[in-house]
Amino acid sequence: MTHDDATQPAEATPAPPAFEARGTGAEPRRTGPGAEPRFREGAGRGTAPRSGPAPTPAAPTPRLRALHPPPATRSNALPAAAWWLWALGLAVAASRTTNPLLLGLLVGVAGYVVAARRTDAPWARSYGAFVKLGLLVIAVRVVFSVALGSSIAGTHVLFALPEVPMPGWADGIRIGGRVFAEQVVFALYDGAKLATLLICVGAANALANPARLLKSLPGALYEAGVAVVVAMTFAPNMVADVLRLRTARRLRGRPTGGVRAVAQIGLPVLEGALERSVAVAASMDARGYGRTAQVPPAVRRTTNVLTLGGLLGVCAGSYGLLAAQGAEYGLPLLGAGLVAAAGGLWLGGRRSVRTRYRPDRWGGRAWLVAGSGVAVAGLMIRAAVYGGEALHPGVVPLTAPTLPLWPALSVLIGLLPAFVAPVPVGAKESTR
Asked: Helix (H) and strand (E) counts for the chain?
């Protein structure tokens, strides 16, 4: 072979032509140069192979995309005040009834929304602690009724306890004696109402970010709001520490129950929760929280009068709304108190020199969440005024509670946040 022959490019070997065998059974199919034959199952049997990519589902229309809750981000997260308004609306509804069926429905609504929209933050784990606290309240209420007696005079005696004789100056106080079924049922109803109130507050703690709630406070209440946020972060951090320490003890093979285990866990839990709360307060103080501007003395006195008077009006109006006979004067007092308090807070906010970084914006979904709680409270108050017999089942004589239709439907409005609120990362959507 000469030098010229060595420099000539070698002739390319022609590739065998692509062919596709057709026949019966599984037969080879060549699609290109050097390609291995691929076998098609059932070729020639009338079953054509599927070609092209798999069909994709049709994209949702813009209208359906607008109704579908988006993933939660920092920009579209609901304000903490919206969750608190929703939870307080459920609590007001629970205060208007002792029907255990309605109370259980309220607890179920709150629990469903929490399960669908809570995050993995430490405060989101406090809901279970509030449920256990509610069960403890019911148990304590029943025990006190059995041990100390009740004003409910029944006819069905369950058992009798040894009665302690009391002196003459303690007339009306009884320790022990006969226990009636009517008084136990009344204690159960009363304890269930208080437990439902606590569970509704626990739902707000599990869903609302305390730091975002602080951003929503007016400037006049900012210093008090810092203290409230520090106090609110104490309980969630304590629950997180309990779970962490119990897991660590379980991994080391140590017992997690009993009096001794509780005593060994209690001190580290309290210490850790206090250290975190103090660290939050120190970080806020280091960033200049609490600085105020100079205002004239007259403005300061007017602010104090309006704020104090407005808060007293709000307290009196709220008591009137919660009481059975105070609905006629509770709403006017509450309205007047809110107006006076708003004026005082607006004047007090003039001495605050702070600014807000990324203030919370109330969008349509936030208004729907808050409005659902307000709607539940308003409809339950109306049901209690115009025919509240079914809301308060009788205990003398004992009657089985019934589920009233319209109050139950009004409670179900509280499920709206589970379908309109943004879906947290890692949470399971409730609309699917």
From this structure: 14, 4
Residues 93 and 141 in one domain: yes
Integer Cα distance of 137 and 145 in angstroms: 12
Torsion 252-256-260-264 (CA) sign: positive
Identify the residue with better confidence: 146 or 266: 146
Residues 300 and 383 in one domain: no
Instruction: Give the residue numbers spanning the domain of 83.
Output: 77-216+363-420
Q: Please say whether the beta carbons of 130 and 205 come within 8 A.
A: yes
- pLDDT cut 90: percent of the chain above it: 16
Exposure on the CB side of residue 285, measured as CA atoms within 13 A = 8
Token representation of residue 215: 């951003």
Report pLDDT digits (tens) over 46-100: 444 444 455 444 445 555 455 577 777 766 778 888 898 999 999 999 988 999 9
Q: What's the rounded Cα separation, in Å, for the pair 296 and 108? A: 52
> Does one domain contain both 378 and 347?
no
3-state secondary structure of 216: coil
Which secondary structure element, helix H or strand E, spans residue 27, and what is its range? strand 25-29
Count: domains in the chain: 2
From CA 292, how far away is CA 219, in angstroms rounded? 10
For residue 27, what pLDDT band results from cuts at 50, 70 and 90? very low
If you ran DSSP here, which 8-state letter would residue 161 be given? E
Please provide residue 255's backbone torsions phi and psi, each rounded to the nearest 5 degrees.
-70, 145
CA angle 161, 166, 170 (to 5 degrees): 125
Please write down the HEC assignment for all residues of 398-426.
Answer: CCCCCCCHHHHHHHHHHHCHHHHCCECCC
Please state, in angstroms and as integers, the Cα–Cα distance from residue 116 to each residue in 111, 288, 296, 432, following that order: 9, 37, 50, 11
Which is nearest to 424 in space by CA: 64, 69, 66, 67?
69
Looking at the structure, tell me whether residues 197 and 325 fall in a common domain. Answer: no
- pLDDT-derived band of residue 350, with 50, 70 and 90 as boundaries? low
Q: Kindly state whether residue 11 falls inside one of the protein's structural domains.
A: no
121 SS3 class: coil
pTM of the complete model? 0.64
Q: Count CB-CB contacts under 10 A for residue 133.
A: 15
Q: How far apart are CA 44 and CA 32, in angstroms?
A: 22
